[in-house]
Amino acid sequence: MKTYKKLIAGFIILAMVMTAIGASGLVSNGNANQNAINPETTENNALAVTSVSWYSQNSSELPAPGSSGIPLYVTFIAYTTINDINISINLTAYKAPLSYAYISGPDKNVRTFNVMPEVVAGHSYTIMQLVNINKSSESSFYDENLSYYNSTISGNTTITIPVGKPQIGIISYSTNPPVIYQNEKFIKLTVYTENTGTSSMKNVNVYITSPNYTIVSPSNYNISYYPLGKLLNFTFYIDAKNVTGNSPLEFHINQNVYTLNTYIHGNGKTSLSVAIENTRLISNTKKQLMVFYLNNTGTKSFIDIEIHMLSPEVISIYVSSSNPLGALTANNVTFAQIRPGESIKVTYLVDTSPGSAGTYPVQLLVQYHFNNTAETFNKVFTYNQTIQPTTEKQISSTLTEPLYAGMAALIIVILGAIVAVSVHNRRRTGKAKKGNGNKKDNNGTEKKP
Questions:
Q1: Which candidate, 129, 278, 405, 438, has a CA 20 to 30 Å from the CA of 39?
Q2: What are residue 172's DSSP bridge partners?
Q3: Which tens digits make up the pLDDT trace of 97-106?
Q4: Of all helices (H) and strands (E), which one includes residue 12?
Q5: What angle, 0 to 180 degrees and rounded to 10, lies between the N-to-C axes of helices 402-436 and 391-399?
Q6: Residue 432 contacts by C-beta under 8 Å, 6 or more apart in sequence?
Q7: Of 372, 391, 410, which one is at a domain's C-terminal end?
Q8: Residue 224 burial by CB count (10 A; 0-12/13-18/19+): exposed, middle or buried?
Q9: Is the peptide bond before 227 cis (omega within 30 degrees of 0)?
Q10: What is the spatial distance between Cα 102 and Cα 132, in angstroms, rounded to a whole number?
Q11: SS in 3 state form for 139-197?
Q12: Are 43 and 128 part of one and the same domain?
């Protein structure tokens, strides 16, 4: 009886020891591996994402918002060996702007499922999915899932997907000439830009606008691809309008607008005046003086002044017969400069044509520039030039008029009467002298009249 009790006690102790050993994990059963990948307990431990890249497995380039059909590569490592597994990139609907892209067939939204006969623990694998990125994308990273399953397990592993953000900014800008004057033409504006973002930009539209400038060319630039880190220069030709003061330009890159500050200076026309000394010429007369005075009433010096007289054919610049080639330059008077407050005298020798009496418009064209611009400015002064007839013509014209013809006849009659009286008086004087003769006095001496 005692022996039987000892056996029962021994079995009880043995059972307790075996139970303790099993609880400590020193004994495993055939389901141990299956329990290790049970999706309810280890769903995020079967696979781990090691890298995400766009375009190719080794590329570091990021796509920009608005890109479509971009290959997305996801590389993962298996923690355990799994057979007949289906793996895909799971883009959730609420995670727009990322969506599946067209692969083949009529569907435009296609998710790629990758069926693998086996993934071996410790090995890396890469899958690819074509992805669209909506142009409204604003974030730099989006968390999505790498989904996997087979007949016994399923799970998700988080993928952090980077999305690029192009950032085209202005480094600097310049104008040629550097100083801009009102009404100045063909100003060269160059804008220096750089893409300092995290991705390239596609379909870039660049143009400028301004109320104070006329855009000559080009109207805009259409760039299909602006690479990341690239420097691009954009050149425009513009005309300044008849305004002065601060004149900003707006530089547009797609939806972004940058302000370029410029200043338009006065072109000095209001501070350049002309006074005319001789406004009367004689018809059919050579080498007559025409005198002008140019006055600088402003605060800037006019540089390299050229003066040209523009007149009708009845007034021509006098050219000496000994120097006929002088006709080529006779109309071009030049001065080095006119300082503020100075006045210069411009003299022309002119000939007038026969029968040119009358009043004619004459213009004085003054060309100049300032020392900080190569632009040539023009100012035109217009006045009326009177050409009087010659003295003979004046008398002839006067005598042929009805009123003056009557007066001339009267004058001739009066002159004739005066002449007749004068002749009559002379005749009487002559007769008186003859009648008196040479008489003698009482002494016989001859008297002289």
A1: 129
A2: 192
A3: 898 887 665 6
A4: helix 2-23
A5: 90
A6: none
A7: 391
A8: exposed
A9: no
A10: 9
A11: CCEEEEEEEEECCCCEEEEEEEEECCCCCEEEEEEEEECCCEECCCCCEEEEEEEEECC
A12: yes
